[in-house]
Design goal:
about 180 residues, 12-stranded mixed β-sheet, mainly beta, Immunoglobulin-like
Length: about 180
Amino acid sequence: MRKFLLLLLLVVALGVLVASARAWPTNVEIHFSNGREAIDCPDAPPGTIIDSLYIVGRFFSCCPVMVEYKVTYPGALTRLSDNTGGLDIGDSYAGIITSWPSPLDCLYECVLNKVIFLWMCQGCADTNIPIVVVPHPLWQCFRYKCLWPDDYIHCAIGMTSLICSTLPIEKTTWGQIKELYR
């Protein structure tokens, strides 16, 4: 009987740990066409270069079928179109609600929207220009709905990306990081 109770206690404790474990918060961020969260204004005259950015969902605990958000676009770019691949109500500038007929695979990372835009700046006269994913104007949080595992509406965190960043951002490997501490 003691072995059974000990085993039951172990299974319950393990279940609580697994159910509550979440290494990273769910977030929604912007990646530019260069694959990074920061980019510089092109050297070409304003209004002459069309580019794209991606609204990316990361670390969702499920496979979403609906998302709601808004993007605060700076004057350095003008949004031309949203390309979500789903059914849209609104746009990412004023607030967008997108639903898909089948769930997205967002357990690590997925593209929620490809935004086509026009650069309206030349060079980096201004620095650290933010472009931010914020909650839809109707809600207090960035919302997404999952059919599995719980058919529930969840909240995520909107992230900030930068145009003409003065912060050094570079891709590196784990080996290079470990080498710094030797």
